[in-house]
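Take a look at this chain, tokens included, and explain the fold to me:
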Amino acid sequence: MAIDIVTRPLAQTGLSFGLITLNRPEALNSLNLQMVSQLLVQLEQWQHNAHIAFVVLSAQGHKAFCAGGDVSALYHALDAKPLDVHDSSHGVYQFFQTEYQLNGLIHHYAKPIVVLGHGVLMGGGVGLFMGASHRVVFDNTRFAMPEVAIGLYPDVAGTWMLSRLPGGVGEYLAVTGSQLSAHDCGFLGLADIYMAARNHETVLDDISSMNYDVSRDAAQNLDAVFSHHNQAWNFHCSAVYEQFGLLRTLASCRSALELEHCVEQFVQVDPNNAYLKQGLQQLRYASPLAKAITWQLLQINRRHSVLQTLERDLWVSLQCCANGDVSEGVRALLIDKDRQPNWIEQSEVTESLIQAFCQPDWAGKHGTNL
């Protein structure tokens, strides 16, 4: 099974907590349609079950909580039916629609949700993580939204999240896909709890053996458990903290292309800056169309709610799959692994093209929005 679902009793209370464990460690627990469907159904059931006090999301293996969506499966689905993704019966449509419904449910869940975000925590994994009430990170956490490298954009409401970071920082992370450490996440407010000397399995043991106090609510009980082992952030171990001043100057940039030119100048001034050099390399590799779409969505979703963002994300993701660079990006990075994508050229990325990708127009399409 790709997901393990159990309930564990809270001693002498008559209550339990729900535990969902992603179980595809060989694929870094990447999400497929079956997994997001199971997650959605189970969370909906537990939300209305008075005997379930809270929910924990964990994952098998030590390398990853979740590396994102199973984009190789999406690639093969697109290869079989490349132009029909707006049809609600298409596997690509079903995956994105179900995933975004799941993300929205987590953001507005009626009970606490704990996510143990160890190891690789990217893309669709961030979608499970960022709406939770208790977001736990570890020494090995590697958090990122690297979708521009496959011709996509930070979906799962990633542009909603990143647009709310300090100006310049969110834009940089969105169009470079740069990784964040646990301390970066803490500095930016993207995680709540840092478990320095523990791993996700021992934290799960702590939750399972907790002395649950029925005079307090579930969130207070969880806070008490985490307070025993939660460690203080060390922002001097955060690359974003160290580069914060430079990244903030990027707030004046008016496009992804302008941001790239600014980062090039930073690297020329300080060629030994490994963090910015890596970001520049990723900027140069990424799809010009995906970077432009990402930039536009950051501006739009700064003014919108997470649910409004997810509704738009369905349209944008389908457009990127049917008419954009996704198939080529996945081919180059994960299928053939030649890292030589044939992107839509920068000269072809016009305002009207970006509008067609970012502005939903379901008229004449088989599908509907969320």
